[in-house]
Amino acid sequence: MDGHGDMSQLIRGALEFQRRVFKSKRSLFGRLAKGQRPPTLFITCSDSRINPNLLTMTEPGELFILRNAGNLVPPHGAPVGGEAATIEYAVAALHVTDIVVCGHSHCGAMQGLLHPESLTSLPEVAEWLKYAQAIAPGLADVPAESRLDRAIEANVLLQLEHLRGLPSVANALAARSVRLHGWVYRFETGDVGAYDPVTAQFVSLSEKARLMGLASAGATAAVEPEPKESTI
Prior knowledge:
Layout: H1 7-24, H2 26-32, E1 40-45, H3 52-56, E2 63-68, H4 82-93, E3 98-104, H5 108-114, H6 123-128, H7 144-165, H8 167-174, E4 179-186, E5 191-196, E6 201-204, H9 205-211
Parallel strand pairs: 1-2, 1-3, 3-4
Antiparallel strand pairs: 4-5, 5-6
Helix pairs in contact: 4-8
């Protein structure tokens, strides 16, 4: 590694952003300087292969993003941390109307959960993954070749349960002012699976869009359903 490492790439990128991208979006950033009202809290993994804004084709100001290893939500009563504070702020101060918990394929955190022996040199990671430990018993009889995929899906559902137990989210759900959604993103194919509570399965996002009457991806932005509790 040379003296600058990969920082030279970041610096060149930031300068290119200032020269080209910022100028084309100057009015957007001017509006954002006055405040933010993102409609969605997007909870996903810290994995570098996941880009929430690219995945959802959203601009700055449209997603309030919470990222950590394994897209975990510590349950109510856990030691105070950034996750609970971020969620509370999103729901009680920014009044988001949707919360997405988005897991992803090839998740290293879920690999660690399934193979705890690999975490002997990562004690903080091992401790953090206790917030997903409840899914482990249900995976014991799952074939090895599909166990990771099942763990990723089960973890999304567990974190949605943790969300429901947080006071700010529970209050918003009772007021029918927020909806919960479970996604799994396969970055190698671009596909997104969305949890369907009717079938208790993850279905393709394109199928979910069809069921919602969205003729095309471009129609999504025009749909403003009445806020209510759901898990999709």
